[in-house]
Amino acid sequence: MAFYVHRAFGGVVPSLARDAHAAAIGRVVADALAAAGLAADEVDAVGVTAGPGLEVCLRVGARAAVAAAVDADVPLVTVNHLEAHFPFLTLLVSGGHCQLLLARGVGDYAVLGGTLDDAAGEAFDKTARLLGLDVAAGGGPALEALAAQGDADAVPFPVPMARRRDLTTLVVAGGVAANASVRSALAGVVAATPGWSMVVPPPALCTDNGVMVAWAAAERLLGGVANEREGWAVRARWPLGGRGG
Fold first, then answer.
1. Average pLDDT, stretch 114-134?
2. Which domain of life does this protein belong to (predicted)?
3. Which residues contact 112 (CB under 8 A, 6 or more apart)?
């Protein structure tokens, strides 16, 4: 239903997204606790997405997380949502990011490359709007449906990293990794390269979700990383790279 809040505007409206987050967060937390069979004061820690993303939306989650951690008197762990998508060599293709990243460990990343212009998700959204497609569920799904009727061989594209043979497992993550055409094209590249393999989550687990953030927070907590419950701020921009990214 969240997509339809923005349908008439052809894209995400920050203030509407903030209000939708605020209206839903109490129910989402309550449902998660109920599904886990836990009371609010029985959790061991609270993990929260601190960025990157829309600040007005991030603040909604941040306030709720701080309150929950204070009430239960447990550690708070802030998570970069990009980190939460992956654990290895990753092609990260999400709404606002398109990067090839080497994950050496929790909080230790090297950016091997990235787009010079729009990320894949942004390009999908802009192209879908230019074509006058229905973007109620996002530009990516609209373009994917249209592309299914097109000619996949109409435009030849070069094979990326064709001369590199030292990185042999590719993990594809991020929201755009749910796109069937992207998955199929990357699978074809990997299949044609001896010794390579590809790992990609099911489409339903590619988009941002609470489970991935909770897992990243748990890994950070096990590594001895936690935050003060007060005095930190969400980040609209939070690049990965180097330790602590």
1. 82
2. Eukaryota
3. 99, 100, 101, 102
